[in-house]
Structures are given as C-alpha cells and as structure tokens.
Amino acid sequence: MTFDVGAVRADFPILSREINGKPLTYLDNGASAQKPRVVIDAMTRVYEQEYSNVHRGLHTLSNISTEKYEGVRGIVARFLGAPDEEEIVFTTGTTEAINMVASSWAAPRLEAGDEIVLSIMEHHANIVPWHFLRERQGVVIKWVETDANGDLDPEAVLAACGPRTKLIAVTQLSNVTGTVVDVKAICDGARDKGIPVLVDGSQGAVHMPVNVAEMGCDFYAITGHKLYGPSGSGAVYIRRERMEEMRPFMGGGDMIREVTRDAVTYNDPPMKFEAGTPGIVQTIGMGVALDYLMGLGMENIAAHERGLRDYARAKLDGLNWLQVQGQSAGKAAIFSFTMAGAHAHDLSTVLDKRGIAVRAGSHCAMPLMEHMGVTATARASFGMYNTEAEVDRLVDALEFCHELFG
Ligand code: PLP
C-alpha cells in the first residue's frame, strides 16, 4: 500500500482552515497532533447514542460502552505488539503512566542509595516522578549524556548501571531533537544485568512501528493525543511479572474486589491499576485513532516522515544562520533551532502570523536544554500529514525572520 498524503490530509478537518489569513501549517505535532474525522465522529457517536458508565450497569448502554471501552485493550496490545491485552493499563497519558510505575512499582522496592539511570534527553514526565523518589526515599538518579550529534549510546547507558541500579528509564525518541534511541539494545543489555527498563514511547510510537515483545522492555508508555487521538487518553504496557510486583496506584471504585470496614481486596490486573470512572470516550477515541494508524501502516507513515526529514534537513542545513540542535542521522522529523538575535518566542510569533504553528520554549526538557547550552528553542515537529510544501513555507518564513531580526 502506498501512502497518499493528500488523502490523509483530507481526513483531518482542521487542516483545511486558515490561521491569520494563511493556510494552517501545523508543525507542533510533538506537543499534540490533530484528530482525523473518524476519531471525532466516533466520539460524537458515543456521546449521542451509546454513552454510559462502564463496568457497572447491567443495562444496554452500559454494556455497549463497556464492550467498546474494553475492546481498546486489544487494539493497544496489537498496536504495541504486546503478547496479552491484560498487560495493557489505560491511563490519561504518559505522565500518569510513569507516575504509576514510580509510585506502584519503584517506591515500594527501592531503598536509599538505589539508582535509576536516565538519559539527559528525558521529558520532565520521565524525570520528576524519579525526583519524587530521590526526595522521599534517597534514590539516586544517574544521568547519561548524549554525544555532539545528539545520539545516545546504548553502551553508555549500560555502563552507567552498577550493582545498585534498579531501573533504566529512557525515551525512545527525543521530543526536542528527534533523536531515536536504540531501546532494544538497551533492553538486551539490561536483561543480562537483571535490570528492568521503562521506555517512554510518547514520541516513538507516533513515528515508527513498535513491538514491545521484540524490544524486551518492561514498561512502555504511550499518550493518545500525540497519536492523533483525544487528550486525556493513554496506555502503558506492563510486562506481567512487573505487574505482579506492583501495588495499586490510586484507590477507588473498579480496582477493588471487596471492601469492608476493616479490609480491602483488589481486582486482578489490569483493573487493579484503574481506579474510578475512566476516560471512557477518550479511550474509545484512542482506539479508533490506533486502528486508523494501523490501517495506514506505521511502516508507511515512517517512510513518508523519513522523506520529510531528509527534505527538511537539506533545506534547514542550507540556512547557515540557523542553529539546528541535534544532527543525529536516524532522527525523526523534529527540528529544534535557534537564530542569533531572535528569541524562540519571537520566531514562533512571526511564524504564527504566516499560519505556521511551532512550539517555542524548553519543551519540558530542561536538563537537555542545559546540556545543549540553550535556554529555549523553536521546534518544528512534523507529523504524517505534513508535506514538502509545508517545509518550504517554514523555510520562507524563517528567511523572513532572518531579515527581520538578523
Ligand atoms: N514524554 C515525552 C517524550 C513527551 O514528548 C511528552 C509530551 O510532550 C510526555 C512524555 C508527556 O506526555 P503527556 O503530557 O501526554 O502525559
């Protein structure tokens, strides 16, 4: 099957609107992606015709909602190559997933002096939960830096592990530079050392096919809103052995089997980790988004985006007054850049006047910004519906910025 970017664009209603009198050029997919009509329609349909709470009722609507909601577990398992859908826990996104692993798996097991190895590229969602353990129980965070191209050497990650390392937590793809990490090599080496690996798949799962069974990770977190699904949806694959080691995360309805005045017994996983009324419609919407992606084929999407990356890289490299951070050869189509004389916020504002949406700031990755010696960058992050014509529009607008600020 070939990838028809025009047909894909036609599936996204928002892409035909204008911003400031110019066609929208949406290059902020790293922050959140737009939604195809199938997702919007599916969610509207649930609200209009099928909505009820899940797991609770014996009435028709509750059964429909429960069936649709629970059906998403299998879709996520297929999308991630997870052996068993019971290894999938629904979350509101990656932030909740990593906090869950920190609180339910790591906190009860780690003691003062135990270590967690992180890369310098991590998003705050994969840093702050570990700082909680540092502050509360003396866990030590060990950092592994990237090289001059922005690459992370799996051997350096493994070399940072000592006898007290209890977890490696690493992103598969940097939201700032687009660097792709060889997480399989890290998992292979970590398995030999008996160290579990958490992979932050927030960005990785959007841009390449993922198979957690082949990867060999213990935890793999995704967030629905970057996968062309709704905000407030997400999931985490948790290897069964790790799940059995986890205490419940939040307490409330659905995650219990029995509650008395004196005691409580818990539901079986994965429901043990899903307290309260979940994001029913969001999760159903995420399932539709993942089906849509699988219908297009993640390999086809990745190939289209590799073409965009190469085209954008050649164009941006030609702007010798633009400093692009992270030149890793196999990176995704995510470009963070600075321009002497212009703050990233100014670049973003001028680009917005031309209908171009980029993100500016520290991208929730302050340790990486410090490592790269910058306080803020502007970031153009491409998605599957972007085109070479949009790269040209970005380059034209940057040339205008250079005239304005240079
Ligand atoms: N990890 C990475 C690499 C991200 O890019 C993001 C979002 O920007 C997150 C984690 C957090 O995702 P969410 O805010 O959807 O939980």
Automatic annotation (TrEMBL):
It catalyses: (sulfur carrier)-H + L-cysteine = (sulfur carrier)-SH + L-alanine. Keywords: Pyridoxal phosphate, Transferase. Residues 25-394 form the Aminotransferase class V domain. Its cofactor is pyridoxal 5'-phosphate. It is an enzyme of class 2 (transferase). One of its GO terms (molecular function) is pyridoxal phosphate binding. This is Cysteine desulfurase. Belongs to the class-V pyridoxal-phosphate-dependent aminotransferase family. Csd subfamily. It comes from Pseudoroseicyclus tamaricis. The keyword Transmembrane does not apply. InterPro entries: Aminotrans_V_dom, Aminotrans_V_PyrdxlP_BS, Cys_dSase_SufS, Cysteine_dSase, PyrdxlP-dep_Trfase, PyrdxlP-dep_Trfase_major, PyrdxlP-dep_Trfase_small. GO terms for biological process: cysteine metabolic process. It comes from the Bacteria. Its EC number is 2.8.1.7. Catalyzes the removal of elemental sulfur and selenium atoms from L-cysteine, L-cystine, L-selenocysteine, and L-selenocystine to produce L-alanine. Catalyzes the removal of elemental sulfur atoms from cysteine to produce alanine. Seems to participate in the biosynthesis of the nitrogenase metalloclusters by providing the inorganic sulfur required for the Fe-S core formation.
